[in-house]
Design goal:
Order of helices and strands of chain B: HEHHEHHHHHHHEHEHHEEEEEHHHHHEEH
Shape of chain A: globular
Shape of chain B: globular
Number of helices of chain B: 19
Number of strands of chain B: 11
Strand content of chain B: 5-15%
Largest sheet of chain A: 22 strands, antiparallel, barrel
Radius of gyration of chain B: 27 Å
Distance between the termini of chain B: 89 Å
Strand order of the largest sheet of chain B: 2-4
Structural class of chain A: mainly beta
Largest interface: A-B, 83 and 101 residues
Oligomer: heterodimer
Helix content of chain A: 10-25%
Number of strands of chain A: 58
Chain lengths: 1115, 505
C-alpha cells in the first residue's frame, strides 16, 4: 500500500512537471477517477463461512472490477464477512456493508480499480544536527531520497517533518563535513527522534579525482592534477566548454573573441611546449574516456574536469599527452533518486571593445589631407569637396557613416537545459538535452545554435558484471559571412565615413561618389549581410560502451569500445551586387564578386577506439596497499573532405549546385591514422603515508616509418604524507600535508601524415590544348628517420589542508623540456625549391611555478570561499640549429621565448628639425613629430639589424581569484582572470591610420603630434603605407601591454526551497543573474586585451559582455 | 544470470587478446592521394605527368601568376606600382639593397622550382620503358624549359648555381654560383638538344608544349642578350624556315583566350579556368597596380608615324585621338570605352591609365574578373621579327630586310601604321627599332630586358615619372655600378653561405 501510494505520488509529480514544461494534456494521468466502478450495481451472496477476502474476490468477479490491496498490511486474515445477500445494489453500498466493523476504507483511485486501505496517521521525524563538539549546524540539508524531498535545519540545528509510516533513509550533508546517512522506521502517528553528529570532513582532500583510466583519492595523488567541479559552472553562459577551464591554476585559457559558434578558448597547459601551430599545441581532451572535441560537449553535462598537468599524471596517455590532458566526466544520476532539472537563461551580448572610429566625413578628409602633406604629398580631397560635405546635412549622398554602430549591436542569447537523472539500486542513468541560441553582435551575418543530447547509463547486471554506455550528440548551426569572418571583419575595419550605408530609395545599393584612395571598390559589408551567406553545420556523436567484469575480488577487467563521429558541412553563397553612383544613379561596379559562386564543402571523420584494462587492487596486511593496472588500446581515425563549386547561375534565386552551369570544380581527399598503445600503472603505498606510483605507455603510431614508430613514455612519482607521521599527530589543526615529486616523459606526434614517405605530389597539372593535363612532382624533401617529440617533465609539489579544510593550498614547481621538436628544415631554393624535410631538431624549455590557496568558512548563516592562484612560466628556445624564424614582427630563436616580438626600439618623438638632423633616420622624410628609432647597433643606420626582443606573446604570469559568498538562500560568486607581462602588436586597418584605404580612430585627432601639441602620445599623422616607414615600421612604439585583470564572471542567485514550492511539486528553485566579462582593467584601450596575441590586426570578431538572467528548477 | 554474464565477458576478452597479435598491421597506413617515389617513374604516364609539372612551375605566383609578371613592366619607365609588391617599387626607384626580398627571391625560387622538375624528367625518364619517340620529346621539352628558367636567372643575377641533376639536399644545398658563361653554355646545349628533339608543332590537343620554334626563338634571345648578332640571325632564319609563324592580324586579339595558340604565338604560359586561373583581369580592372605611366603613353606615335611633338595631328586637349592604334588596344585611358562603360578616375586611380592588354573583358563586355584565364605570352613572332631587325641592323645597318621586319610589325591590319621613313641610317634605325619594341611589346615585360641590354636604363630609369595629368608620382634612380644585376636573396645566402653576393650590395 505504501509503495502503491508512493508510486502514485511519483506519477503525479512527473506529470506535473511535464505539464509545466510542455503544456501537454497530461491531466489524464493525474485526474481523480470519478467513481464509476463504485456506482456499478452488483450482486453478492455471503455465506456463514465466507471470509472477508473471499467476499471481496467474488465481488471482483461478479462486478468485474479490480481491487488493489495488500492483504498482510490490511490484516484481513481471519476476518469474516457478515452473511447477507445483495442484489443489484451499488458496489459502494455493498462494500460499506461488508467492511463495517473493520477499519478498512476504500476508494476508487484509478478508474475501474478499487483500492482498499487502512487510514494512517502520518508520523513525524524530528531531531538535531550537531558537529562532534555538540555545536548545532544550521542550514544542513537532510535528504529523504525515497520521498524525493529535502529539508534544512534551523539556526538551532533542529528539524522536523512529517512522513507516512514506513522505512526511510535520511541523509545529512553539510559543507566541510562528511555526509551521514541513517535509516528510520515510523509507525502510524508515531514521532521519532533522529539526531546526527557530523564529523568534519578532511577538506578537499577527501575528494576522489578522475585520473587516467580510473579514479584516485586525492590524498593519494602524487602527480599534479587540477579539478573543476561541474557545480562551479552552473548558470554561467559558457558557450564553449573550453571556457570552463578558466580559473584553473597552471592553465592559460585565452578566449579571443565572442563569435557565436567560434568562441572556443585556446588552452595552454604549462606553457607552449613546442614549436608549431594549432593541433600541435593543444591538450588531449577525453570525454568519459574517449577523445572528443571540447566544443561538442554541453557544459551543463559536465560533472567534473580533471586537468593532468605533469608527466606523472599524463604519461599514461603517452604520445598525445605532451600538452597536458583534460579529462571530462559527464553527469550520471544518483542511486535511489529521481531528479528532473530544468534550467535556462536569457540574456544580451554586446562588444567589449570596438575601435572609436572617426565618423565625420569632414574630419576624415581633412585628416587624410594632413597626412598626405605630412608625408610630402599633396592634399587629396579638395576644399570644395570638404565644404560640400560641411554645408550639407547628413544624407546618403553626404554620409557621415559610423560603421561600428552600423555593423555591431546588442544581440540576444538564450540557453535551455533539461535533465532527467536518477537510478535504482543497480542502475543509474542520465538523459539530458540542451539548446543554446546565440545571435552575433556582428549583426545579420553571425549567430549559432547548439543542440545537444546526452544519454548515459550504468547498470550492474550481476555482482561481478556491470555495463555502462552512452550516446552524446551535438549539432552546431553556425552563420558566417560569405568568405569567412576574417575577410568581413577586415572589410568592416576598412570602411570610411564618406561611404554611404543603407540602400537608395528604390532599394538599390549605393556606390560612393567620392573616391577613397587605397580602395578599389566600395565593398559594403551590409551587402554581405543582406545578399550572401555562409552556413556551417557541425554534427558530432560519441557512442561509448563499456563492460566491467570482476574476475575475482580485487581484479577488475574493463573493456570499452567507442565511436566518435563528426561531420561538417559548409555552404557559401556569394552573389554579385551592382552598385549605383549615389549622386547620379548610374551603375558603377560590383561591390565585390562579379559572378555568383556557390561553394559546398563537406567533411567527416570517425575515430574508433577499443581500450581494455585489467586492474588489481589488494591490501596486504594492514599497511601495504598495492594497485596494478595494465591495458592496451587500439585507435583508428579516418577522415575525408570534399568540395564542389559552381558558377554560371541563370538566376540568384536558385542557389544549388545543379543550377550553376560554369566552372564546375570538385576536389577532396581522405586520410587515416592508427595508434596502438600498451600502458600500465603500478601504485604502492605504505599506510597511506609513503606513496609510490609508476606510469608508462608504449605507443605505436602510423605517423612514423616502421622502425621509428614505437615510443616508450615512462613516469615515476613519489609522495610523502607528512601529516600521517607521528611527529605531526599532535598538530590537530593540520588535516593533511603532502610532499610529492615526479619525473616523466611524454610525446607528441602531431606532424601531419606521411612526413616520412618520399612522395610525388599530384595536382601540378597544366592545360595543353585547352584540356587540363595531370602533373606530378616531388615537392618536398623527406626524412624517413623522424620520430617522436619527447617532453621530459619534472614536478615538485606540496599540498596542504588546515583547520578542517578551511585553508587549503597547493604549490608546484616544474620544469619541462621538449626535445627533438619536429620542424621543417629550410633548404636553399636551389634544391628545386623543395620544402625542407621535417626533422627532430629543436629543444624548448618551460619552467615555472603554480600556487593556489583556498579558504572556505562559515560565520553563522554566512558562508564564503576565497580562492586565488598564480602561475609563472618562463619559456625559452634552447636549440634551433642556428635558425632564426622570423614571422612578420615575431622571432623564434635560441635563448628567447617562442614567438617573441622582434621590433625596432623607439625613443619617443622627434621634436625639432635639429634633433632630426642629429639622429640616424629611417627615411629621408623624417621630420618633427615622427617616431625616433634607436640605432641599437650604432652603425649609423636604422634598419632590420636594430631590432630587439621587445616583448612576449605568451604571458609570464597568469592569475585569478574566485570569491564567493552565501547567506541563507542568496549566493554571490565571482571569477577573476588575469595575465601579465604580455604584449600585442596591433597593425593594419583601424589600428593605424588610413591603412590600406581604411579610416582612422578619434585618438589621432586628439592625441597626434602637431607643433601645438608636442607632448602628444601619437606621432604626427601620416598614412600607414609602404613608404611611411618613418612612423609605421615594426617598432615597439606600437607594442601594447596586453596585461589585464578581468571579472570573467559574476553571479547572484537566490534559491527557494520550501514547503509551498513542494506542494506544487518543486523541490528547489533558483533564480539568478549573471554577467560575463563585466569589468576589465587593462592599459590597452584600442581593442580587447583578451585576444589572439599573435594576430596582429584588430579586424577580428570582438569579445563580448554577456548579461543573463535565468532559473534552475528541480522537481 | 550471473554465469551467463561471466561467460559473455570471457567471450569478449578473447577477441581482444587475438587483436593484440594482429593489430600492428593497422599502423601500415598507405597514402591515398599521392605517389611515392618507389611507385613512380615506371610508366609513360608518369613521364608525361612529370614533364607537365615542369610547365606547371610557370603558373606559380613566383613567376607568371598574381601580379608578378607585370612587375617587370613596373621596373621600367612604362608603368608604376602603388604598393611595393615583391619590392618591385623599391627596385624601380633604386631603393633596394642587399636585404631586399621580393622579385629577386620569387624569381630565384620560381626558376629553381622549374629547374628541379626539369632535372627530374631529364634524370629519370630515360630509364622508363616506353615509346622512344615520346621519351625523346619529353626530355626535349624539359631541356627547353630548363634553358628558359636558367636564362632568366642568368640574366638577372649574372651566374647562378648550376644544378642539372634531380634535386637533392645533400648534393645541391652548398653549390656556389657558376660563372655566367658556364650557365650560358649549359643553356645553349639544352636548347640545341631541344631543337634537335622537338617537333615544329603539335596536334591541337597538345598545343602549348615547347616546339622547335620556341627553342630557336629562345636561342636567339640568349644570343641577343650578349649582342651575338650572327647567331641571333641564324637562329631566327632557322625559325622562319619552319614556316609555322605569322603575325596575327588583330593586335589586341592575339592575346585573347579565343585566339589561343594563334599563328603569332611561339611560346606562352597557359591558363584554363577553373583549374588554373590568374589574377590578370582583377589586377588591371581593380587593383591598377601596374599602372601605365604618361611616359609610355607619350611614346606612342601619332597615326601619321610622327611623334606627338612632331605631328600636326596631336591635340593636347584630346591627347588620345589619332594615335598609333596600338595605344587604344593596349591601354585604357580616361574616357575610353571599357567594360561596357567609360573608364573614370575611380577606375584608373593611380596614373589615369590601366593596361587593356592581358584582360579578357573588352570595350563592351564586363567580364567576370575572378575567372581570368588569359595566357601570358612569352615569345611571339613580332618579338622575333624585331629581334631579327635589331641583329641585322647591328650587323649590316638598315637594310631592306630590317625595314621589312619592322614594317611587317607596324603594318599588321589592325595597326596599319605608316612604314618607317626610307633612308634611315644605322643609328636612326636602331632608335626606330627600340621605339617599336617599346610600343609593340608594351605591358609584356620585354622592355625591362631591352633597356638593360641597350644600357639605356641608365638614362631612362633616372628622374621623375608622371601621371596622365603631368603630376610627378615618384622619382626613380639607377646605379650602373650595381643595379644591372639583382641582389642574391640574402635569405638564400643565409641557407647557403657559398653564394657570393653581387658587387656593391
Amino acid at each position: 500500500m505504501k509503495n502503491f501510494t508512493l508510486h502514485m505520488q511519483r506519477i503525479m509529480r512527473i506529470s506535473l512537471v511535464l505539464y509545466i514544461l510542455f503544456f501537454s494534456c497530461s491531466q489524464l494521468l493525474m485526474a481523480e477517477a470519478n467513481g464509476q466502478a463504485l456506482r456499478k450495481p452488483a450482486s453478492l451472496v455471503i455465506g456463514h463461512q465466507t471470509t472477508l477476502e473471499q467476499a471481496i474476490q467474488r465481488l471482483s468477479q461478479t462486478a468485474k472490477v479490480d481491487f488493489a490491496y495488500d492483504a498482510r498490511h490490511l490484516g484481513v486474515a481471519g476476518l469474516t464477512a457478515h452473511p447477507a445477500a445483495y442484489r443489484d445494489q451499488p458496489l459502494e453500498k455493498i462494500l460499506t456493508a461488508i467492511l463495517a466493523g473493520t477499519d478498512i476504507l476504500f476508494k476508487e483511485e484509478i478508474e475501474g480499480t478499487i483500492t482498499l486501505y487502512k487510514p494512517q496517521q502520518p508520523g513525524r521525524i524530528h531531531g538535531r544536527v550537531t558537529d562532534d563538539r555538540g555545536e548545532p549546524l544550521a542550514g544542513a540539508t537532510l535528504t529523504v531520497n525515497t520521498l524525493n524531498r529535502s529539508y534544512t535545519t534551523d539556526s538551532e540545528g533542529a528539524f522536523s517533518f512529517s512522513a507516512q509510516p514506513g522505512v526511510y533513509d535520511v541523509e545529512v550533508t553539510y559543507v566541510s563535513y562528511t555526509t551521514q546517512r541513517k535509516q528510520v522506521s515510523i509507525q502510524s502517528g508515531q514521532s521519532v527522534e533522529l539526531s546526527f553528529t557530523l564529523q568534519a570532513a578532511e577538506g578537499a582532500l577527501s575528494e576522489v579525482v578522475v585520473v587516467g583510466y580510473g579514479t584516485q583519492k586525492k590524498i593519494n595523488v602524487t602527480g599534479s592534477v587540477a579539478v573543476v567541479n561541474g557545480d562551479d559552472l552552473n548558470n554561467r553562459p559558457i558557450t564553449n566548454a573550453s571556457q570552463a577551464l578558466q580559473g584553473v591554476p597552471g592553465i592559460y585559457v585565452n578566449q579571443a573573441g565572442g563569435q557565436p559558434g567560434a568562441d572556443g578558448a585556446t588552452i595552454r597547459i604549462r606553457g607552449v611546449g613546442t614549436i608549431g601551430g594549432g593541433g600541435k599545441l593543444n591538450p588531449l581532451v577525453l570525454v568519459d574516456g574517449v577523445e572528443y572535441p571540447l566544443s561538442a560537449v554541453n557544459p551543463a553535462d559536465i560533472e567534473s574536469i580533471s586537468v593532468l598537468k605533469d608527466a606523472a599524471s599524463s604519461a599514461i596517455y603517452g604520445s598525445r599527452a605532451a600538452n597536458g590532458v583534460v579529462l571530462i566526466t559527464t553527469k550520471l544520476g544518483k542511486r535511489d533518486q529521481t531528479t528532473i532539472e530544468y534550467s535556462n537563461y536569457f540574456g544580451a551580448q554586446e562588444a567589449t571593445y570596438l575601435p572609436d572610429a572617426v565618423e565625420s566625413s569632414v574630419d576624415f578628409m581633412e585628416w587624410y589631407n594632413k597626412a598626405m602633406v605630412n608625408q610630402g604629398g599633396n592634399p587629396y580631397y579638395s576644399e570644395e569637396l570638404i565644404n560640400e560635405f560641411r554645408t550639407n546635412p547628413t544624407s546618403l549622398v553626404y554620409p557621415n557613416t559610423n560603421w561600428m554602430d552600423l555593423m555591431f549591436g546588442t544581440a540576444p542569447i538564450q540557453e535551455h537545459n533539461i535533465r532527467f537523472a536518477g537510478g535504482t539500486e543497480k542502475t543509474r542513468y542520465n538523459l539530458s538535452a540542451g539548446y543554446l541560441g546565440q545571435d552575433g553582435v556582428l549583426k545579420g551575418m553571425t549567430g549559432a545554435d547548439r543542440y545537444s543530447l546526452n544519454l548515459k547509463i550504468n547498470s550492474e547486471l550481476s555482482k561481478r558484471v556491470s555495463i555502462e554506455g552512452g550516446v552524446m550528440a551535438s549539432r552546431w548551426d553556425k552563420d558566417e559571412p560569405k568568405a569567412g569572418i576574417s575577410t568581413v571583419m577586415n572589410r568592416i575595419m576598412r570602411m570610411v565615413p564618406i561611404q554611404p550605408a543603407g540602400r537608395m530609395e528604390d532599394g538599390r545599393w549605393p556606390d560612393s561618389w567620392v573616391l577613397t584612395p587605397g580602395q578599389n571598390s566600395f565593398e559594403n559589408p551590409l551587402i554581405w549581410a543582406a545578399e550572401n551567406y555562409q552556413k556551417q553545420v557541425t554534427d558530432r556523436m560519441l557512442i561509448n560502451l563499456a563492460l566491467n567484469y570482476r574476475i575475482i575480488d580485487g581484479l577488475l577487467f574493463n573493456i570499452r569500445a567507442s565511436a566518435n563521429e563528426g561531420r561538417y558541412d559548409m555552404r557559401d553563397w556569394n552573389t554579385p551586387t551592382m552598385l549605383y553612383n549615389v549622386k547620379t544613379g548610374a551603375p558603377t561596379r560590383y561591390s565585390s564578386a562579379s559572378v555568383a559562386t556557390l561553394v559546398d564543402y563537406g567533411s567527416k571523420e570517425q575515430r574508433l577506439n577499443t581500450t581494455s584494462t585489467l586492474n588489481y587492487e589488494k591490501t596486504f596486511g594492514s599497511s601495504h596497499n598495492l594497485s596494478v593496472l595494465g591495458g592496451f588500446s587500439v585507435e583508428t581515425f579516418k577522415g575525408s573532405w570534399r568540395q564542389a563549386s559552381v558558377q554560371g547561375f541563370p538566376t540568384t534565386e536558385l542557389p544549388e549546385l545543379n543550377i550553376g552551369t560554369a566552372n564546375q570544380a570538385t576536389t577532396g581527399t581522405s586520410y587515416e591514422d592508427a595508434l596502438l598503445s600498451y600502458f600500465g600503472r603500478l601504485q604502492y603505498n605504505f599506510r597511506n603515508r609513503y606513496l609510490f606510483e609508476f606510469n608508462s605507455r608504449y605507443d605505436g603510431s602510423s605517423r612514423f616509418a616502421e622502425g621509428n614508430r614505437w615510443g616508450f613514455f615512462p613516469s615515476l612519482s613519489l609522495g610523502w604524507r607528512l601529516s600521517e607521521e607521528s611527529f605531526l599527530q599532535d598538530a590537530t589543526w593540520l588535516d593533511d600535508l603532502k610532499l610529492r615529486g615526479s619525473w616523466g616523459q611524454i610525446g607528441n606526434q602531431e606532424i601531419g601524415r606521411f612526413q616520412y614517405v618520399n612522395s610525388v605530389s599530384l595536382g601540378l597539372g597544366y592545360p595543353f590544348g585547352g584540356t587540363y593535363a595531370p602533373g606530378s612532382a616531388v615537392t618536398q624533401s623527406k626524412d624517413p628517420t623522424l620520430s617522436w617529440e619527447t617532453t621530459t617533465m619534472s614536478n615538485l609539489g606540496l599540498d596542504w589542508s588546515l583547520f578542517n579544510g578551511k585553508l587549503t593550498g597547493e604549490f608546484d614547481v616544474f620544469r619541462k623540456r621538449t626535445d627533438g621538436i619536429l620542424r621543417a628544415v629550410t633548404l636553399p631554393a636551389q634544391v628545386g625549391a623543395l620544402g625542407g624535410p621535417v626533422q627532430n631538431l629543436a629543444v624548448v624549455d618551460n619552467s615555472g611555478f603554480e600556487v593556489s590557496l583556498s579558504h572556505t568558512n562559515r560565520v553563522g548563516d554566512f558562508t564564503y570561499q576565497l580562492g586565488a592562484h598564480l602561475t609563472k612560466i618562463r619559456n625559452e628556445v634552447v636549440e634551433l640549429m642556428g635558425e632564426e624564424v622570423i614571422s612578420g614582427s615575431r622571432i623564434t630563436r635560441a635563448g628567447d621565448p617562442i614567438e617573441s616580438w622582434y621590433l625596432l626600439k623607439t625613443d619617443g618623438l622627434f621634436q625639432t628639425e635639429e634633433e632630426v638632423a642629429n639622429y640616424p633616420s629611417i627615411t629621408s622624410r623624417v621630420g618633427p613629430g615622427d617616431v625616433k628609432y634607436v640605432d641599437l647597433n650604432e652603425d649609423g643606420k636604422i634598419d632590420g639589424n636594430d631590432r630587439y626582443i621587445a616583448g612576449s606573446t605568451f604571458p609570464d604570469f597568469t592569475y585569478g581569484f574566485n570569491l564567493s559568498g552565501g547567506y541563507k538562500g542568496f549566493s554571490l560568486s565571482t571569477v577573476w582572470q588575469g595575465v601579465s607581462d604580455v604584449s600585442v602588436r596591433l597593425n593594419g586597418n583601424m589600428a593605424m591610420p588610413f591603412n590600406n584605404g581604411a579610416g582612422l580612430t578619434k585618438n589621432w585627432i586628439t592625441d597626434s603630434w602637431t607643433p601645438e601639441n608636442p607632448n602628444a602620445l601619437l606621432p604626427r599623422i601620416t598614412t600607414r603605407h609602404q613608404y611611411t616607414a618613418e612612423n609605421f615600421s615594426d617598432s615597439d612604439f606600437w607594442l601594447y601591454d596586453a596585461s589585464y585583470l578581468r571579472l570573467k564572471n559574476i553571479q547572484l542567485a537566490y534559491t527557494f526551497q520550501n514547503a509551498a514550492l513542494r506542494k506544487i511539486g518543486i523541490d528547489r528553485l533558483q533564480l539568478f543573474v549573471n554577467g560575463q566579462n563585466m569589468l576589465t582593467f587593462s592599459k590597452m584601450k584600442l581593442f580587447d586585451p583578451e585576444q589572439d596575441l599573435t594576430g596582429e590586426h584588430i579586424g577580428k570578431y570582438p569579445s563580448v559582455k554577456i548579461y543573463t538572467a535565468g532559473l534552475t528548477v528541480n522537481f | 544470470m550471473n554465469m551467463r554474464h561471466q561467460k559473455l565477458s570471457i567471450l569478449l576478452i578473447i577477441p581482444v587478446c587475438l587483436c593484440l597479435l594482429s593489430c600492428e598491421s593497422l599502423l601500415d597506413t598507405k597514402p591515398t592521394d599521392f605517389y611515392t617515389e618507389d611507385s613512380f617513374w615506371k610508366t609513360a604516364t608518369h613521364a608525361e605527368e612529370a614533364t607537365t609539372s615542369a610547365y606547371q612551375a610557370l603558373l606559380h605566383n613566383d613567376l607568371y601568376n598574381e601580379q608578378t609578371p607585370f612587375m617587370f613592366e613596373v621596373m621600367t619607365p612604362n608603368a608604376y606600382h602603388k604598393d611595393n609588391f615583391q619590392s618591385a617599387h623599391d627596385f624601380a626607384i633604386g631603393a633596394h639593397s642587399a636585404t631586399t626580398i621580393g622579385m629577386n627571391l620569387v624569381t630565384w625560387r620560381g626558376c629553381y622550382r622549374g629547374i628541379g622538375r626539369c632535372n627530374m624528367v631529364i634524370d629519370r625518364v630515360p630509364a622508363i620503358e616506353m615509346d622512344e619517340a615520346l621519351k625523346t620529346r619529353l626530355v626535349g621539352e624539359a631541356k627547353f624549359l630548363r634553358a628558359f628558367y636558367f636564362q632568366k636567372l642568368n640574366v638577372l643575377f649574372n651566374g647562378v648555381p648550376l644544378v642539372v641533376t634531380s634535386p637533392n639536399g645533400a648534393d645541391h644545398s652548398a653549390l656556389p654560383r657558376a660563372a655566367y658563361a658556364e650557365v650560358k653554355q649549359q643553356i645553349l646545349q639544352d636548347l640545341n638538344d631541344a631543337i634537335a628533339s622537338l617537333p615544329a608543332d603539335y596536334p591541337a590537343a597538345s598545343s602549348g608544349r615547347a616546339t622547335k620554334g620556341a627553342a630557336l626563338a629562345l636561342k636567339a634571345q640568349v644570343h641577343l642578350q650578349d649582342h651575338e648578332y650572327t647567331e641571333v640571325v641564324s637562329a631566327i632564319d632557322e625559325l622562319i624556315a619552319l614556316e609555322k609563324y605569322a603575325l596575327f592580324p588583330d593586335y589586341n586579339g592575339l592575346f585573347r583566350k579565343a585566339n589561343e595558340g594563334n599563328s603569332e604565338i611561339i611560346f606562352d604560359v597557359r591558363f584554363k579556368s577553373p583549374q588554373v586561373r590568374n589574377s590578370y583581369d582583377i589586377i588591371h580592372a581593380q587593383y591598377n597596380t601596374q599602372a601605365p605611366l604618361q611616359e609610355l603613353v607619350e611614346a606612342y606615335q601619332m597615326k601619321d608615324g610622327l611623334s606627338i611633338e612632331e605631328s600636326p595631328l596631336y591635340d593636347p586637349q584630346n591627347p588620345y585621338a589619332n594615335r598609333d592604334p596600338r595605344l587604344a588596344q593596349s591601354i585604357v585611358y580616361l574616357g575610353a570605352p571599357w567594360r561596357n562603360r567609360v573608364a573614370d578616375a575611380a577606375d584608373l586611380h593611380q596614373t589615369g591609365y590601366t593596361f587593356r592588354k592581358y584582360t579578357e573583358y573588352n570595350e563592351t563586355t564586363v567580364g567576370t574578373i575572378a575567372n581570368s584565364d588569359v595566357n601570358y605570352v612569352i615569345l611571339r613572332y613580332a618579338d622575333v621579327l624585331l629581334m631579327y631587325a635589331e641583329a641585322l641592323n647591328e650587323l649590316h645597318g638598315a637594310t631592306q630586310a630590317v625595314y621589312e621586319a619592322v614594317n611587317a610589325v607596324r603594318q599588321r591590319p589592325s595597326v596599319d601604321m605608316p612604314a618607317l621613313p626610307a633612308g634611315l641610317d644605322k643609328d636612326a634605325m636602331r632608335e626606330a627599332i627600340r621605339l617599336e619594341r617599346r610600343i609593340e611589346l608594351a605591358g609584356e615585360g620585354a622592355y625591362f630586358y631591352d633597356i638593360r641590354r641597350w644600357k639605356t636604363i641608365e638614362q631612362e630609369m633616372v628622374g621623375p615619372v608622371h601621371t596622365h595629368s603631368g603630376a610627378v608620382i615618384e622619382t626613380r634612380n639607377f646605379d650602373p655600378q650595381r643595379d644591372y644585376y639583382w641582389p642574391i636573396p640574402y635569405t638564400e645566402i643565409d641557407l647557403n653561405p657559398a653564394l657570393i653576393q653581387n658587387p656593391n650590395y
